[in-house]
């Protein structure tokens, strides 16, 4: 299977004056195309630093990172920004939607920064992405006219619109109630079945159980990396919720 990302012996050291903080200590990790990986770890484990590196928001102090076969460390700032726009979709805990723009305009935004113009019909792609996440009838709604779950679906559509090699989701259910969380996880599982590669950071064991692979970080090192033999089915769990919880 094709590797979407590969990091080898990656370290990250933050120099805080007289103190050096070793956030990552020789991390090696590969993610194949079509995998759904959950990354767990307590505060200070290095998972946020790892996600920043995977998302091309920061560079490692040492080691190699290949994103879709492209060596990241050798790239300049502009090429790095282009690679981030072309290859990565981001989903955040706080949605990060522009409040005065519609769902359609929020989703279309990444394509406005695509200097390659590889996607020829941005508006059509944005409509298709929103339809894919079940919001084809909410194109012209503003964020304050949408529920939390719908806002997160807009954010997921925005992550999909540039047809990325991988989607990185950082605590995407952290602001959602249990029912809405299951709805988002069911959507992730459906997208993954369609071939989308996903890396999801979470501190919740219950959320990680819906992925097909678990990577656990501790003290800047990978302490566990194993397949989840029988991931939970979010759609089934959502359907099984009692009526009083579904209201």
Amount of helix: 25-40%
**Shape annotation:** globular
Number of strands: 10
Compute the CA-based radius of gyration. Answer: 18 Å
Q: What is the CATH level 1 assignment?
A: Alpha Beta
According to CATH, what is the topology? Rossmann fold
Q: What is the straight-line distance between the termini?
A: 43 Å
List unreliable stretches of 5+ residues: none
Sheet with most strands: strand arrangement: 6-7-8-3-9-10
User: Main β-sheet, in a few words?
Assistant: 6 strands, mixed
Q: What attributes characterize this protein structure?
A:
247 residues; alpha/beta; Rossmann fold; six-stranded mixed beta sheet; 9 helices; 10 strands; 34% helix
Q: What would you say this structure looks like, in words?
A:
The protein has helices spanning 47-54, 77-87, 103-112, 122-132, 148-160, 178-193, 205-208, 234-239, 243-246; strands spanning 3-16, 19-32, 36-40, 62-67, 70-71, 88-92, 166-170, 198-201, 213-218, 221-227. The chain is an alpha/beta fold and 247 residues long. It has one domain: P-loop containing nucleotide triphosphate hydrolases (Rossmann fold), CATH 3.40.50.300. It has a six-stranded mixed β-sheet. A four-stranded antiparallel β-sheet has the order 2-1-4-5, with helices on one face. Strand 1 (3-16) and strand 2 form a beta hairpin. The termini are far apart. The mean pLDDT is 92.
């Amino acid at each position: 299977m094709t590797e979407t990302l590969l990091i080898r012996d990656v370290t990250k050291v933050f120099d805080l004056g007289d103190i050096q903080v070793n956030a990552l200590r020789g991390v090696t990790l590969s993610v194949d195309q079509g995998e759904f990986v959950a990354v767990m770890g307590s505060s200070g484990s290095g998972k946020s630093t790892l996600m920043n590196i995977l998302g091309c928001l920061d560079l490692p102090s040492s080691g190699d990172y290949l994103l879709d076969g492209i060596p990241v460390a050798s790239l300049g700032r502009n090429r790095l920004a282009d690679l981030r726009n072309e290859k990565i979709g981001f989903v955040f805990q706080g949605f990060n939607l522009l409040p005065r723009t519609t769902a359609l305009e929020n989703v279309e935004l990444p394509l406005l920064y695509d200097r390659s113009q590889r996607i020829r019909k941005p508006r059509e792609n944005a409509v298709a992405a929103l339809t894919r996440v079940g919001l084809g009838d909410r194109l012209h709604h503003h964020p304050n006219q949408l529920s939390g779950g719908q806002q997160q679906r807009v954010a997921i559509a925005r992550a999909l619109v540039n047809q990325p090699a991988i989607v990185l989701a950082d605590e995407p259910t952290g602001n959602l109630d249990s029912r809405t969380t299951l709805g988002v996880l069911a959507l992730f599982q459906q997208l993954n079945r369609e071939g989308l590669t996903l890396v999801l950071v979470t501190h919740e064991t219950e959320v990680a159980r819906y992925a097909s692979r678990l990577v656990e970080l501790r003290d800047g090192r990978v302490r566990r990396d194993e397949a989840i033999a029988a991931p939970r089915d979010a759609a089934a769990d959502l359907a099984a919720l009692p009526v009083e919880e579904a209201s």
